[in-house]
UniProtKB/TrEMBL annotation:
This is Carbamoyltransferase HypF. Pathway: Protein modification; [NiFe] hydrogenase maturation. Keywords: Hydrolase, Ligase, Metal-binding, Transferase, Zinc, Zinc-finger. The active site is at R30, N48. Residues 215-400 form the YrdC-like domain. GO terms for molecular function: acylphosphatase activity; carboxyl- or carbamoyltransferase activity; double-stranded RNA binding; ligase activity; zinc ion binding. Residues 15-101 form the Acylphosphatase-like domain. Belongs to the carbamoyltransferase HypF family. It catalyses: C-terminal L-cysteinyl-[HypE protein] + carbamoyl phosphate + ATP + H2O = C-terminal S-carboxamide-L-cysteinyl-[HypE protein] + AMP + phosphate + diphosphate + H(+); an acyl phosphate + H2O = a carboxylate + phosphate + H(+). Involved in the maturation of [NiFe] hydrogenases. Along with HypE, it catalyzes the synthesis of the CN ligands of the active site iron of [NiFe]-hydrogenases. HypF functions as a carbamoyl transferase using carbamoylphosphate as a substrate and transferring the carboxamido moiety in an ATP-dependent reaction to the thiolate of the C-terminal cysteine of HypE yielding a protein-S-carboxamide.
Length: 818
């Protein structure tokens, strides 16, 4: 009888409303629902609205359950379902199943990131018998532009830059056919109705096509590259500059014209086989290269062939990506060599997106440009990832990843809508809504006027796209950050609560949030190693050990504060940090007496020492900084790797990692690792990492003529060993009542160093710590806005403010750590 009743219940006809939330628009979700509903014999309709996808379904209970199961198990490739909610539906449902027009309303859905060309579209553009053969803007619901063309929601053609290209009859038929993979693929087009690519000269002179072997303008552009020319390419999220990476003279010419002294160039190759000629590629790295995000992947340059030093000066890695758009696929069809594919800009400026701007800026670099007539609505740089400690980790989060949201821990479910303005360098902003965090694409350095303007435009766009109405503002507590100034102005103008978050606490909170660390979980130790951040004591921090959570922290340990003579100039000139470190540890007389025969002594002797000594002694433009980044600079300077100046941020540290002898790391015992001790600071009594023993060992190895790669390995091992020792020391309680914490969260730009991260994680895990690290969000300042948002949300929840309810009892300005 029970089985009979169960079968009868399963066959009972019912009507339900199914709400699907998450990244479900612009990814082929409605046609997938249509197909599954027809296969499950269900009547009803599906539509997009401001909250995601809405389904009205009528059928047997078992058939509706089958539909739900298939949606959960087999969503479209680019979809990300965050919730499926089912409730009874009382209105009549017509026979058959249809897709209906989008409905407007408050937005609770997501915009999908741009996605690399799928296999089906790639095959189509290379098929001479296909309608879109060699069409450089081919796409479908499983691939193509999203963020780069969108202007508003719902995500329909009319709210994108494709609105300028009315569909031809054949494209319209595909667009309207639920059985077609291009059903409601908003950017679809073809040779007849879509954007066109053209090879032009910026100076307006005519091109002589007889000079080039070509199938079309796209093919002709690569012919120019093969002949040693530089070509500007209007790509998905901005212009790029392309040249043959195997032609050293051309690469050096590009470097000179672009005014990019030493920063490595990104590379693009036709396929994995070309990349393997120059780099080793692990399965995880290959998967990342071929993923819909199609990022630049940093790979070990360990292939049978080598490229010119001009591609990545002083580095042991190359940044490769595969063609991510049909335009790139077609360009590379006949190109069996790697191509430099770098951002289309002058050094440190934002990537050109406007055609007139590109002609003005890039015309000084090359006369040739492959352009098209589809507007780039939003600038989006290429993303960068690296495989470290068994995971592919995002170093720059942009094309392919943004604006995909990040789920906050479960106990943030009632968090109010927060807008976090992020840092000043590697700027991003972050929106909290519906217990998810929307992190913007990488913006760049806000001190650049064009980047600052772009940041403001993107912020306005994201607030519109996500219908975001902030109930509070978060920012860095640094008094002079441009992002913080904007945040304070916004909070004051809108009468919103402002939460000022300490920089390194934001780093720690970002790591906790990414790893799903609950709001009420026990305190963890945040080890944050980076360049510079404003401390609560109005000094500069940069190597910090913070015990806490989102709600607050206690600074338990630090690196030794050392003067930065020249202030910001010391960040650019490693010798300044080296001199300050040596003077802080031993003084000039001791250095001269014991190490006066070193070449290093002569180089430092030639510097304006009396001026620097006076600046340090009197505290004039020489702030003390507990910075791990500046320690890396000083060591790189001592080893002769980067002594005079850094051509780009982090160059000294990156080149120091690049020369590390891996054999020394594995085979040499810890007794030869450079020693760093942990005494207490005078006055505060705070434990700190003291580098005196390390400097004596480094200088001694220089006297002995120890190879630089061996010395670099000993430094990394010694530093990781000291970090683990500090964590163990801080975990101990005096009353032996058990450890103060068992989890360590690693954050800050220094942990984008593969050697340091691997050595630190291994040593911490050997001491039985649970170690949290970054993967989806950059460990560098690109992840800070997420941490600011999480800290602010935690504070506001505690103050009684929840989403859309108000009831706040928080102060108008809350300073983190005070």
């Amino acid at each position: 009888m029970t089985a009979l009743l169960s079968r009868q219940a399963a066959q009972r006809i019912e009507s339900v409303q199914i709400r699907v939330r998450g990244r479900v628009q612009g990814v082929g979700f409605r046609p997938t629902v249509w197909r599954y509903a027809n296969e499950c014999r269900i009547d009803g309709e599906v539509l997009n609205d401001g909250e995601g996808v809405l389904i009205h379904a009528r059928g047997t209970a078992s058939d509706i359950q089958q539909l739900l199961d298939r949606l959960r198990a087999e969503p479209p490739p680019l979809a990300d379902i965050t919730a499926i909610e089912v409730k009874p539906f009382s209105r009549a449902v017509a026979e058959g199943f249809v897709i209906v027009e989008s409905a407007s309303g408050e937005t609770h859905t997501e915009i999908a990131p741009d996605a690399a060309i799928c296999e089906a579209c790639a095959a189509e553009v290379l098929d001479p018998f296909a309608r879109r053969y060699r069409y450089p803007f081919t796409n479908c619901t499983h691939c193509g532009p999203r963020l780069t063309i969108v202007r508003g929601v719902p995500y329909d053609r009319g709210t994108t830059s494709m609105v300028a290209f009315p569909l031809c009859e054949e494209c319209a038929a595909e667009y309207c056919d639920p059985a077609d993979r291009r059903f409601h693929a908003e950017p679809i087009a073809c040779h007849v109705c879509g954007p066109k690519a053209r090879l032009i000269r910026f100076d307006g002179r005519a091109l002589s096509y007889e000079q080039h072997s070509m199938l079309d303008d796209v093919d002709a552009a690569m012919s120019l590259v093969q002949k040693g020319e530089i070509v500007a390419v209007k790509a998905l999220g901005g212009y790029q500059l392309a040249c043959d990476a195997t032609k050293a003279e051309t690469v050096e010419r590009l470097r000179k014209l672009k005014r990019r002294d030493a920063k490595p160039f990104a590379l693009m190759a036709r396929d994995i086989e070309v990349i393997r000629r120059f780099c080793s590629v692990s399965p995880d790295e290959e998967k990342a290269l071929k993923s819909p995000a199609a990022p630049i992947v940093l790979l070990q340059a360990q292939g049978p062939e080598t490229l010119s030093e001009a591609v990545a000066p002083g580095l042991a890695t190359l940044g490769f990506m595969l063609p991510s758009t049909p335009l790139h696929v077609l360009m590379f069809r006949r190109m069996a060599r790697p191509v430099v594919m770098t951002s289309g800009n002058m050094s440190d400026e934002p990537q050109a997106t406007d055609d007139a701007q590109a002609a003005s800026t890039l015309g000084a670099i090359t006369p040739y440009a492959l352009v098209h007539d589809r507007e780039i609505a939003n600038r989006v740089d290429d993303s960068v990832v690296r495989s470290m400690v068994g995971k592919v980790r995002v170093l720059r989060r942009a094309r392919g990843y943004a604006p995909a949201s990040i789920a906050l821990p479960e106990d943030f479910a009632e968090a109010p809508e927060v807008l976090a303005f992020g840092p000043e360098l590697k700027a991003t902003f972050c929106l909290v809504k519906d217990s998810r965090a929307v992190l913007s694409q990488h913006q760049g350095d806000l001190e650049d006027a064009a980047t600052f303007d772009d940041y403001g435009r993107n912020l306005a766009l994201f607030e519109a796209l996500f219908d975001h109405k902030p109930q509070a503002i978060a920012c860095d507590m640094h008094p002079d950050y441009l992002s913080a100034k904007m945040a304070r102005e916004r909070a004051e103008h809108a009468s919103l609560p402002l939460v000022e978050v300490q920089h390194h606490h934001a780093h720690m909170a970002s790591c906790l949030a990414e790893n799903g660390w609950q709001l009420d979980a026990p305190a963890a130790l945040g080890v944050v190693l980076d360049g510079l951040g404003w401390g609560t004591d109005a000094t500069i921090w940069g190597g910090e050990f913070l015990l806490g959570s989102y709600r607050g922290y206690e600074r338990l340990g630090t690196f030794k504060p050392v003067a930065m003579p020249g202030g910001a100039q010391a960040s650019r000139e490693p010798w300044r940090n080296l001199y300050a470190h040596l003077m802080a540890e031993m003084g000039w007389a001791h250095f001269a007496m014991n190490f006066g025969d070193l070449e290093l002594f002569g180089k430092l002797s030639a510097k304006p020492r009396p001026t620097l000594d006076s600046m340090i002694r009197n505290g004039v433009n020489s702030p003390a900084a507990s910075s791990c980044g500046r320690l890396f600079d000083a060591v790189a300077g001592a080893l002769g790797i980067c002594f005079e100046r850094q051509a780009y941020e982090g160059e000294a540290a990156i080149r120091l990692e690049a020369v590390v002898c891996r054999r020394t790391l594995v085979e040499e015992g810890d007794e030869l690792a450079y020693p760093l001790t942990i005494p207490n600071l005078k006055g505060s009594g705070l434990p700190y990492i003291e580098p005196l023993g390390m400097w004596n060992a480094i200088l001694g190895d220089l006297v002995l003529g120890t190879p630089v790669p061996v010395m670099a390995a000993r430094f990394h091992k010694g530093l990781a060993k000291a970090v683990a020792a500090m964590a163990l020391k801080l975990a101990r309680r005096e009353d032996e009542a058990g450890p103060r914490f068992d989890t360590v969260a690693l954050s800050g730009g220094c942990f984008q160093n593969s050697v340091l991260l691997e050595e630190t994680v291994r040593r911490l895990e050997q001491k039985d710590f649970n170690v949290l690290t970054h993967a989806k969000v950059p460990a560098n300042d690109g992840g800070v806005s997420l941490g600011q948002a999480a800290v602010a949300a935690a504070h506001l929840i505690d103050a009684g403010m929840t989403r859309r309810k108000g009831g706040s009892s928080c102060a108008s300005v809350f300073r983190d750590g005070s």
